[in-house]
């Protein structure tokens, strides 16, 4: 591996090689927020990484996940995989504790490099090779927006007692999300700091009025444990959270580089872990109790999560309708933040778009999400299960490749990334190693997949272990492939 040292060439002058800048006045954060909308995918210069309001990242992750989509993901364990509440809750706890670490760790790259996540990925996948994870990430982000819009539309329609169609509800939710994202990072941060509060109140009231029904019946608690069912549910849980990894540093590129990586990691980790575990476990508990509460069962028919939430809050009458509307609006924080990152990914995919105003991308994203959400609104559960499972496979491979590159080949040293090379293809890796490792890993991932449309021979016996195999196989394959690439080019 002697040629690995070639990574040091020209790196000493990188503009992030010294992090001893004086901490600027936090009042400059408004200026930073405005700059963030103009910079696009260009690296943030060291002298402009002055934001010290680090708690912002906690609230971005917290509000983006403290919503009814997290609740609905938790219902999949008992409803689709026929798990008991105990098994579903333990699966939720264990796999979220593990998987939240991946996106949380990648947020620490933003202050050190000043790069958006997909631009940082060029240092593994190359200038052109990064198009592949970029396209997959765009599909994932649009998919999450569609699922959130469906849930929000369902929930609004349930309040209107079917005087409002799901389609109209989807349009309303999408337009509200567009407005939040339209005004940029400053408004987005302000919104995410506050958006979780009314949602917390609504879920607290829902828990209070439903608590008497949530004592798990003995018959529901003694469902035989099935390892394949647990692992298949775990795959959907992994896909739900690890997909955030592909946009992690988008929100931290303006933070001061002297900030402790542990601080950013813990803010991000807790911002992801707390709302996801809490609401997924609540979703699992509620759906287990549905057959024993006739009003819940009626409203939940066909997998109508919005109707179920409305039924839970009905004992509070008109106030319950108001709280249900708040729950419907909870998805706006997730969609708005995703719209924001979509703009960066489109600029990576088509570099000439770097000069296009960010808000135009949000308008285009809304125009795509609305019709697709309307079409997919009546098969929500099938869409959710298939979508989350597929996300886990590619996201696992993507994260593993980035981590091996950073920890092994760049020795956990951010000075070995030259931000001046971000848009120069010849000074970046070709990406053959990353793409080859990612693609080759699916040779063993496919037999381990368990989807509605396909079940591999290994998955028939073990359940879906594609996510775990994707991480392991891509990491192991990347090491020799990257060694060859370095011997060949020295970059």
Secondary structure blueprint with pairings:
Blueprint: H1 29-39, H2 56-65, H3 68-79, H4 85-99, H5 101-107, H6 109-113, H7 117-120, H8 122-125, H9 131-159, H10 166-182, H11 185-210, H12 218-221, H13 227-242, H14 261-289, H15 294-300, H16 305-313, H17 318-329, H18 331-349, H19 358-376, H20 380-409, H21 432-445, E1 450-451, E2 454-455, H22 459-462, H23 466-489
Antiparallel strand pairs: 1-2
Helix pairs in contact: 2-11, 2-14, 2-18, 3-13, 3-14, 4-13, 4-14, 5-14, 9-10, 9-16, 9-17, 9-18, 9-19, 9-20, 10-18, 10-19, 11-17, 11-18, 13-20, 15-16, 16-17, 18-19, 20-21, 20-23, 21-23
Describe the structure.
It is a single chain. With 491 residues, the chain is mostly helical. Helices cover 67% and strands 1% of the residues. The chain contains 23 helices and 2 strands. The chain has helices at residues 29-39, 56-65, 68-79, 85-99, 101-107, 109-113, 117-120, 122-125, 131-159, 166-182, 185-210, 218-221, 227-242, 261-289, 294-300, 305-313, 318-329, 331-349, 358-376, 380-409, 432-445, 459-462, 466-489; strands spanning 450-451, 454-455. A two-stranded antiparallel ribbon has the order 1-2. Strand 1 (450-451) and strand 2 form a beta hairpin. Helix 4 crosses helix 13 and helix 11 packs antiparallel against helix 18. It is globular, with a radius of gyration of 22 Å.
């Amino acid at each position: 591996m002697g040629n690995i040292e070639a990574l040091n060439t020209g790196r000493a002058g990188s503009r992030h090689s010294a992090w001893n800048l004086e901490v600027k006045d936090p009042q400059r954060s408004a200026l930073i927020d405005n700059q963030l909308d103009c910079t696009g995918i260009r690296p943030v210069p060291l002298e402009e990484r002055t934001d010290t309001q680090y708690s912002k990242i906690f609230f971005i992750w917290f509000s983006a996940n403290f919503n009814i989509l997290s609740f609905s993901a938790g219902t999949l364990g008992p409803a689709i995989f026929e798990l008991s509440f105990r098994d579903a809750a333990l699966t939720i706890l264990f796999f979220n504790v593990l998987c939240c670490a991946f996106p949380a760790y990648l947020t620490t790259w933003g202050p050190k490099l000043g790069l958006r996540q997909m631009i940082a990925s060029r240092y593994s996948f190359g200038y052109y090779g990064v198009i592949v994870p970029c396209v997959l990430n765009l599909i994932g982000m649009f998919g999450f927006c569609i699922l959130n819009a469906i849930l929000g539309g369902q929930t609004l329609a349930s309040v209107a007692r079917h005087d409002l169609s799901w389609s109209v509800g989807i349009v309303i939710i999408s337009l509200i999300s567009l407005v939040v994202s339209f005004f940029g990072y400053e408004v987005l941060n302000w919104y995410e700091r506050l958006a979780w509060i009314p949602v917390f109140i609504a879920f607290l009231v829902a828990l209070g009025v439903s608590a008497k029904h949530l004592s798990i019946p003995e018959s529901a608690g003694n469902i035989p444990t099935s390892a394949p069912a647990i692992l298949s549910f775990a795959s959907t849980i992994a896909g739900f959270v690890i997909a955030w990894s592909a946009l992690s540093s988008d929100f931290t590129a303006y933070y001061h580089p002297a900030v402790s990586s542990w601080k950013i990691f813990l803010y991000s980790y807790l911002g992801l872990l707390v709302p996801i575990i809490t609401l997924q476990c609540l979703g699992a508990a509620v759906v287990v109790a549905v057959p024993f509460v006739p009003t819940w069962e009626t409203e939940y028919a066909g997998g109508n999560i919005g109707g179920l939430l409305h039924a839970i809050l009905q004992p509070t009458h008109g106030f319950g309708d108001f709280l249900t509307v708040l729950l419907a609006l909870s998805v706006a924080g997730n969609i708005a933040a995703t719209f924001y990152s979509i703009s960066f990914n489109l600029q990576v995919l088509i570099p000439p778009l770097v000069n296009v105003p960010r808000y135009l991308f949000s308008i285009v994203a809304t125009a795509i999400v609305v019709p697709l959400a309307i079409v997919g609104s009546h098969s929500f559960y099938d869409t959710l299960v298939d979508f989350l499972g597929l996300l886990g496979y590619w996201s696992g491979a993507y994260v593993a490749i980035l981590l091996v590159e950073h920890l092994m080949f760049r020795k956990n040293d951010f000075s070995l990334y030259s931000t001046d090379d971000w848009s120069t293809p010849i000074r970046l890796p070709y990406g053959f190693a990353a793409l080859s490792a990612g693609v080759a890993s699916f040779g063993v991932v496919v037999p381990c997949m368990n989807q509605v449309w396909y079940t591999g021979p290994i998955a028939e016996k073990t359940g879906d272990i594609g996510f775990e195999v994707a991480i392991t196989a891509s990491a192991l394959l990347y090491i020799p492939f990257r060694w060859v690439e370095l011997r060949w080019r020295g970059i």
